[in-house]
Design goal:
This protein is mainly alpha-helical. Helix content is 67%, strand content 0%. Helix 2 runs parallel beside helix 7, helix 5 runs antiparallel to helix 6 and helix 5 runs parallel beside helix 7. It starts with a helix and ends with a helix.
Length: 188
Amino acid sequence: MNLLDSIKERTKEDHQSVEKVLITELKSLSSMEQYGHLLERLYAFYKPLEDEIQLAIDTTFISDISARKHTERLLQDIHAIHASFKPDTTFNPLSISSTSYALGILYVIEGSTLGGQIIVKMLDKQLSVTSVGAHTYFDSYSEETQKMWTSFKDSMLKIEATINEEEMIRGAKETFSALQSHLTQTKS
């Protein structure tokens, strides 16, 4: 079993738990204001992690790491809904202790782009998010999503021997857990 098969298997329940919370909330959205609030909460969670990941993982690990930024898209979507958003920069859900741990977090973030296209279709039916330009986060890579995921997986397999598997899995599991907790605690 390679590293990616192992992390997928060992984080399956964590992934399903947070996915259930997020999908339930997405299905309950009935206004752009509610959608904007969800995006703000996602921004508060992911922005500090993304900043730390960009420092912890360099191009020797992931050659296109600078292309793997998603929080600017969250800001675009939030501003498409209401321009007065002031980011909360005080929240920091996790502390990155190693490159392997950071790669576990990145595994969660990059994996979430796969479901994003399905989420955009769902949100378009509910709220017409595409018509107001508030869909770029969930459609991060658009037509390039599968290509970017394959590139990420290929990069991981190339450096597999240098990764501390337990640390990477811990990073992924703690990210899923922290996101679930954040979504549950910050829902209004």
